[in-house]
Here is the input.
Amino acid sequence: MILSGRGVTAVLGPTNTGKTHYAIERMVAHDSGVIGLPLRLLAREVYTRLVEKVGHHNVALITGEEKISPHRARYSVCTVEAMPRETTASFVAIDEVQLAGDLERGHIFTDRLLHLRGRGETLLLGAATMRPILEHLLPGITVVERPRMSQLLYAGSKKITRLPNRSAIVAFSADEVYAIAELIRRQRGGAAVVLGALSPRTRNAQVALYQEGDVDYLVATDAIGMGLNLDVDHVAFAQDRKFDGYQYRNLNPAELAQVAGRAGRHVRDGSFGVTGRVDPFEDELVHRIESHEFDPVRVLQWRSKALDFSSLKALKMSLEAAPAVSGLARALPAVDQQALEHLARYPEVADVATTAERVEKLWEACALPDYRRITPAQHADLISTIYADLVRDGRVNEDFMAEQVRRADHTDGEIDTLSARIAQIRTWTYVSNRPGWLADPTHWQEKTREIEDRLSDALHERLTKRFVDRRTSVLMKRLRENAMLEAEISVNGDVFVEGHHVGQLTGFRFTLAAGEGADAKAVQGAAQKALALEFEARAARLYAAGNGDLALSSDGLVRWLGDPVARLTASDHVMRPRVILLADEQLQANAREHVLARIERFVNHHISTVLKPLDDISRAEDLEGLAKGLAFQLVENLGVLFRRDVADEVKSLDQESRASIRKYGVRFGAYHIFLPALLKPAPAELITLLWALKNDGLDKPGYGELIPMLAAGRTSVVADPSFERTFYKLAGFRYLGKRAVRIDILERLADLIRPLLQWAPGTTPRPDGAYDGRRFMATTSMLSILGATPDDMEEILKGLGYRADVVTAEEAASFLAGDDGATADAAAAAEAAPEQSEIDVATDALDEAPADAPAAQTPGEGAVAPAEAEDPAEPKPVLLWRPGTRQDNQRAGGRHQGDQRRGGQRHGERHGKADGREGGRKSGGPARGKAQDGKPGGQRKERQDRHDRGGKFEGRPPRKEKPLDPDSPFAKLAALKEQLKK
Here is the structure.
């Protein structure tokens, strides 16, 4: 092997030195030329540039899958594999000659740089690391080193989402590339994708997407390091390990520099760094990349071209020949040699490949590239089928080829599916371009190219749809050009810029539809041009809007035509919440003030209308003294007071003061002082909201849960102990043990109980539920209005301050059917009882009742002794209810149910030993010391002594008469009673 470098010039240097541009300029200076490039994609780029210079009729493009050959074309652009073995062209150039050291393709580059020469000039283009080996193999070669035109600097480690615009992120697997591109789409708007597995047309389209500024990020494999001219400012390595066809290994400094060198164009500096899970580069590695100092290439891959086709064995032996020149190393078996190894073991192939012509044809078939990246055995099977057709018919079976092409001719499916179909059609594109393999090669070249183009376009569309937010790509480009963008807003608030939906205008707030980052801010800035005028127009419309266009929702938001424009928050006065405007900064000056003033007017009007009784009494100027104080408390408690909490104030009110409050709709009930007009869903909902704003209760359990029950007309509900207790009161319910009862229903219950406690035995027929004039029994009418069971009724009455005496059913029946003496004695006791106003009779004991929570069960109240409860035959005891006293509550926790039960039995034993008056006491008489009829224990003892002496009951000293309220219905009843007595 005699090699010479005479007439050969090596133009060496790092990336961005203009080597390829120099080669193009030198080639057009000759009358003919051939240039070999490492990638079909790069060959397409150079072909386009040459066509612009000399016209398409003078330039041919020859690759393994594509052939454009104008008649008498003077210049040929080829992939290195497609370069001719010999040429008469005046000029020859081979780009990226450092690939001669690549384990997979290196032997092809080595063969071309050693043997292919131009008549006038030969250029070898590549990295400076090739200088020693080229000078060794090609004595007399002229070496020209070109410096990098811009500086390359290390920028350290950055998160993917914080990489600068015009960045290329490099990874070495399709899964990693897709994952990074998806992340960038979500965070920064989109990215172009470049992988070696993509078809050249798809890669071109993706590169154009980036080059034209539709996206600012490119995610790629190291394919971008092979001479692609990109406007990249920064290269970030998301991986630093790759599979080289034989093993996973770290990239060496020269390979890292080849990719990092894509950053910066011409005289514009570039930067490189790491991202993701890659550790920052060591200082030594950074220095070598920045200064382009790398270990020289010492060995080139080589495979003999002197092949012996006399037999399969001879061919295999010639392929395994060792180089005779130092600096060359026998290449590892490539795809074609691996296929030959498999096919040589196939009996059907070995039986056919018996002549030199057929062995050479087999080797030609083994050159079929493995675009599909399948196993060597599967690839060998396909070659075997093609070879059988070539040997038998001299042509590939077109029916077989038509079926294979038809299977690939579908543009549906996702990225992986389309990529697999492109790989398959590229195989048949290669077959159609092999001379002599098809009867009608032109037809199949056109058909396969058409299908590959359709699939490539579909793949580009899928990649763009998945990894690029097309909604913002045009906007970003126009913004970078500082163009005036056209913006418009639809009637439903959709904001469009340049016809693309960029966000939603709700009320006076604009929500950007894009993600985060600088692009999002730019789009928002473009949209503001349209929003500025829209905000002013909306402010004017809101200022002139009627109250019907505004609404206050239960979450405290004020809505205008359904859109939130303000929210309420607490202030010093519960009835006057503060209004916080929900608007962007673009609503300014007078427009903002007008909107806020209009919303405040609506809120005040809404509260004063829905809560008119409460608003009226809060503004009342005719109330004085205790009446004014009571009204103040009523407003502070949002319309409901427990009567026991203001018992002293109520007792101190004269009739004139009561009348002044009643005219504002206030009702003095037995248990509550309240405004009945507020016990409706709308006022109750607003009252609950105002309290929640004041007490930070919007998130408390139970908020808003009770209003639907009130709206449904429920008179009582099952109490949920997890709810905030105050919500029951605000919704108009009284929390009483297991149930909560509507306040007005409790007052109706008081109306049913009052005549039972005022009835005097012997005066009128016994009302239903009356017992002895001092106690009563629960009736079905009480249960009906409450919607409660007997057990619920027991809890409710205890919560209202009543206490129960327990008697057996026989004792109750005996008493109710009592003898005449008992009836007469009861009548005498009724005549001796003092006359009281109906309010006082109902409330004297209640004013001494315990707190609002259900009272603890006193001994014997509603319970049966454990031993007796086990007997299912025993009749259920009867509960006789009476107003409770302080003594009841003080003793409630210190006595056992059995004591009360036995106390009831002792009273039963005394039945019959006294007159009817005693009989009235025996069935309900509590243990010693317990209050009765709401009187202290001392009064009860005095009455007992008088009974023992044969006397009669005497009434308590008469109370001081109070002036009657002329507007009170009770006053009218009292006056009528006086007239009847006269």
Notes: Confidence is low (pLDDT under 50) at residues 819-824, 826-871, 893-960. The two ends are 152 Å apart (CA to CA). The longest strand covers residues 500-506. The chain is about 45% helix and 15% strand.
